[in-house]
Write a structure and sequence with these properties.
With 180 residues, the chain is mainly α. It is built from 7 helices and no strands. The model is unreliable at 174-180 (pLDDT under 50).
Length: 180
């Protein structure tokens, strides 16, 4: 497994259960990515930070949650735009869409915790509004989930929106700090 490869859904779910985290893998990954994209610290004890609960334990080195942190940080910094969302593989598209909406809601929470008044470009503000709209979306239970192409397009847009926000808030701050 490379340092940029996310652990699989089941591994993250099992690790979250071991630490009694009441979040799905999509929610954990979304919150972590929001935190990192806003310039939050890449810290081993990230669950306590992104879930605003200092009582949460630190994942053990090499644990799926630790690998999730390392791979997510590496993907966000990848100059080849290799960032990926952790969503369930296979199954029904409606389940994947539900996980995607939950990922967006969690991203917004993590992002908000780390943003701390950092300036954002107009494009970043628009991307954040789009993420909020997706996070507020509801699944139509009557939908047969046949529009997998639309779901893939939304995922691709989200990947680029997250990278834009990371460039605005995390990378922009690093570059500004180096100039001073």
């Amino acid at each position: 497994m490379s340092e940029t490869e996310l652990p699989v859904w089941a591994e993250v779910a099992a690790a979250a259960d071991r630490l009694a985290l009441a979040s799905s893998p999509a929610e954990l990954h979304g919150a972590l990515c929001g935190w990192l994209a806003a310039g939050g610290a890449d810290a081993a004890g990230w669950p306590a930070l992104v879930m605003a609960d200092p009582a949460l334990p630190v994942p053990a080195p090499g644990d799926p949650l630790d690998r999730l942190r390392g791979a997510s940080a590496a993907q966000l910094g990848d100059p080849e735009f290799g960032f990926q969302l952790l969503l369930p593989e296979g199954g029904k598209p409606i389940d994947r869409a539900g996980a995607l909406f939950a990922w967006c809601r969690a991203f917004l929470g993590g992002f908000g915790l780390a943003l701390d008044g950092k300036p954002m470009s107009e494009e970043g503000q628009e991307a954040l509004r789009d993420l909020a709209n997706l996070g507020a979306a509801q699944i139509d239970e009557a939908d047969d989930g046949s529009d997998e192409e639309a779901l893939a397009e939304i995922e691709e847009y989200l990947r680029m929106a997250v990278l834009l926000l990371h460039a605005d808030c995390a990378l922009g701050m690093q570059h500004r700090q180096r100039l001073h």
